[in-house]
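Final report, closing paragraph on structural work. Over the funding period we assembled a curated collection of sequence-structure pairs, and we close with a single example.
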Amino acid sequence: MAESRRVPSRRDLLIASAACGLAAASASIAVLAQDQKPADAAAVEASPSWQAAMKLVTGDAKVVEGRIAMTVPEIAENGNVVPFDITVDSPMTEASFVRSLRLYSTGNPQALLATFRFSRDSGKAAVSSRIRLAKSQDIVALAELNDGTFLTATRNIKVTIGGCGG
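Its predicted structure, as stored:
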């Protein structure tokens, strides 16, 4: 006796492939989210100051001013949406590249604003985004190079509304 098999319709195949794609994307996002969180994330969140949060990353290494270009507004009319552009001067080669770029605030309740990771394949160590600032304060960029050295730059932003105005 011959078995009758139902041939899946195009709709069935699209639904099945979308479900597989969604599952794979969810798994990838979960793995990436784990990779983005530092091993000492609880310590960073519990840090009483931006200096202490930065010290968790740098340890006793010397931090050098320079090679970081930061473009931020001097006055932010809305502290909820403050744009920034940061570029680290690096050849991004096997011998010399930026591993990570962290952004700290000196006046927000949580000091670490963002962490960006790079590799030599990134081509350029540059980021553009927006941050939220509770009040007028400095923001500090910290770049970690592949040889273990750290670069930093600081800019002051005066927040007029959307924060405390101070």
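The two ends are 84 Å apart (CA to CA). DSSP finds three helices and nine strands in the chain. We thank the funder for supporting this effort.
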